[in-house]
Specification:
The complex is a heterodimer.
Chain A lengths: L3 E3 L4 E4 L4 E7 L6 E7 L6 E6 L4 E3 L2 E6 L4 E6 L8 E8 L10 E3 L3 E6 L1
Parallel strand pairs in A: 2-11
Antiparallel strand pairs in A: 1-3, 3-8, 4-5, 4-9, 6-7, 7-8, 9-10, 9-11
Chain B lengths: L3 E4 L2 E4 L5 E7 L5 E8 L3 E8 L6 E2 L6 E5 L5 E5 L8 E8 L9 E2 L3 E5 L1
The chains are: A mainly beta, B mainly beta.
Chain lengths: ~110, ~110
Amino acid sequence: RKEVEQDPGPFNVPEGATVAFNCTYSNSASQSFFWYRQDCRKEPKLLMSVYSSGNEDGRFTAQLNRASQYISLLIRDSKLSDSATYLCVVNRGYSGAGSYQLTFGKGTKLSVIP
Amino acid sequence: NAGVTQTPKFQVLKTGQSMTLQCAQDMNHNSMYWYRQDPGMGLRLIYYSASEGTTDKGEVPNGYNVSRLNKREFSLRLESAAPSQTSVYFCASRPDSNAGTGVTFGSGTRLTVV
């Protein structure tokens, strides 16, 4: 099982739709989790952290399921400007050098269509 | 605040040439990272520096060297460039290596080795 796995997409959705992405991770000791957004030919930017209790930021909701080792991102009322690639990121939790590293998924591409 | 600044933004090298990619952050972060991003491969960690004075190998360190010059600056050197090193290189930083925070990326260097 890959360390962080995402469906590459593309997800093509109409404006106003709700879309959800999932991400699975293999290391049960992982401690912190994030969603990043990357626009074409730009650097990734932090979208939101993911907390065990779930968290929401406007139209975006992130969930963590530790038992099943997956993370989700829900986008409601999709906008054209949401078109981007969404990266799932996991911070390894074990001690030693590995604890310093973030592992990035390959990303899920979203296209919001007028 | 400028955040994370990378230079140059674009570079074309001939096989066998050497060059240094520069990175500086003004956020007083302890930890700094170098990633490369290739189509279909996602972001892969080359080297990182958990704190000033320390550096460690990441997932794909071969062909690269790094220097943590001071707390602000972390450079990546290609001693003898190869076509396989054609990629987009991102420098990133975060407050410290165990923090539950994501990293902040620079805008990237697009490197082509011919």
